[in-house]
């Protein structure tokens, strides 16, 4: 019965289109305009680290996006279409990502990839996704490798790229921690190296000697030698481009040898709730959130603890209703805000998008009015997401406060202040 | 023991003839199968072929020669990195050349490791190969400029030749390559195991002293088993590089080595068919459960871990139901059937199933 109705609707849609009365795609009826889109649903897919070393914190992101879509579906969806979100656990293993991405595209026939997480994991599939001409929206990684319009026209980033983040954090160090010796602790891949690029652009590559540049690989959890080397180098400020598990390991290794520099940690590795949990787990309860006091980080979304912010109360409400078993933290906020941006794009792409017109809509529409503090950079020549961040200070009790203005930049351009005003969410949280 | 003596006998050795005939039949059947299924199923079929090659090699070493290796994932990594490095500089290199060089390079590493392994027994050998599995991926991150570090090396896909037409799915082409490699490997191994080397492997496994008294060079036999096994792993690794499109250290962790051991135990120790069963389990069981995290409405801490828990549960149940693996269970069913209807091939006693000498059969 349902199928017959679906066919009828499709036929009707075809008839209407044949009449040619309407040039606008926003009016008329829903058609199955692309793979993964039916008259009533739109299917998207993702690969996520639900288990394994990148799972702490990050495994909440897809559940949070899913909760946002449940809320959106309960309120009627967009253009009458509900969103079906299928995500698989790749365990942060690129080989698994390769196979599961093909499952999503070839078997599940998703309309688009959404929020696929990880730099090494997504690098494994970005060529394949683009060869299949599948929209690849909002990779959950700040690698600037996603901004490659010529080779990867279907791939888009979302969070600020790590180089921009490194530049803004570097500027903060210049302005507020000048005169102190700086050291780096970074993941030895595009994530860490992009961040270091931004830091060097501000601090000057020669001001940080090799002995103060320590890296780790996520397959080796012993970071003691690197932290000892940083202490020996005399660094009083340590900038960490690390995933949460390794931020926690570094903090514990430093505490163990009585080394207490000012920690400056990239957004992806600094979520207070996640770190507190990891610190407790790794130290068997001997340490905890007190190690986070005095940490400097940054954000491009409202702070999760800022209950006066209307976006926070909206997303926290969805969290409490659908995924109350998860902690309310920056990862959950990330997943919801990302899902909100996707909903904005689905709306902007019109009633019956194709894969190509969907990507085109993202390149040509100015997405505004979302939860982000900084503007998006999307255009036909730029596939970057948020263009900037605001510096955040973490107090001894774990509370966070923003400091200074929002700064925007690009990989090679200057840093400038952004003075956009905050927006309020629409009713029901649906754009 | 199943022994079929076909009539065309003396010109071609009966064993070789039978293996070639079986291989031809399997090749035709697989070719037909691959054209009837969709691109994604072809992609999974490729994975089965890859894991079957690796598991067959490991089964030769562990099941037939009694050397437990926990480091076969690392030997696959050697094949995969060899292929990736070759393709990095020479995009157009034919697949066959890439595969052969990968087999050679992992075989050479196999000689080095085989000599060390031949001196070690039981848990010490397991420990040494474990070291290989843990340490080797770190080499790739240490020498980042060569091996690409944590992000690995990307592998250009093998493009189907023009005569297959422009619309020919690349997944099917890769499936053909992998299936061909698997069939050739199986024929070579089956032949080897039916001959003197196979008998020597088993003799060394069962009693080293007795084997030595019978004139078998124990150490040499063990090294030979290790080299052949490593070569199979290298071939599988090179195919895996094409399959995944990337070679990164995170793809060759200890978990991969343990998966291969799982495959041969679940499939059936000591038989090539067991390796194929094991490969089927490795590829398809996780796929059955992979969607659960997003489709079940459970708290994510449970839903995220459920696929792994179910996978583990299936393995436990499989071991309880079929302690000699899938191939062992099939053989027992066959034996029960024969015992009931009075056929007792190989002179075995009626109703008695011989467990101790699982013959390599294809």
Taking all Cα atoms into account, the compactness measure Rg of chain B is 21 Å
The backbone outline of chain A, from C-alpha atoms, is globular
Number of helices of chain A: 13
Cα radius of gyration of chain A in angstroms: 22 Å
Strand element count of chain A = 13
Series of secondary-structure elements of chain B, N-terminal to C-terminal:
HHHHHHEHHHHEHHHHHH
Kindly, what is the distance between the CA atoms of the first and last residues of chain B, rounded to a whole number of angstroms? Answer: 12 Å
In terms of DSSP E residues, the strand content of chain B is under 5%
Structural class call of chain B reads mainly alpha
The secondary-structure element order of chain A is: HEHEHEHHEEHEHEHEHEHEHHHEEE
What key attributes describe this structure?
heterodimer; A: 431 residues; alpha/beta; four-stranded parallel β-sheet; 16% strand; B: two-stranded antiparallel sheet; 2 strands; disordered N terminus; disordered C terminus
Structural notes for this entry:
The complex is a heterodimer of chains A (about 425) and B (about 350). Helix content of chain A is about 40%, strand content about 15%. With about 425 residues, chain A is an alpha/beta fold. A five-stranded parallel β-sheet of chain A has the order 2-1-3-4-5, with helices on both faces. By secondary structure, chain B is mainly α. Chain B contains 16 helices and two strands. Helix content of chain B is about 70%, strand content about 0%. The model of chain B is unreliable at about 1-10 and about 345-360 (pLDDT under 50). Classes of the chains: A alpha/beta (about 425), B mainly alpha (about 350). At the A-B interface, helix 2, strand 2, helix 3 and helix 4 of A face helix 2, helix 5, helix 10 and helix 13 of B.
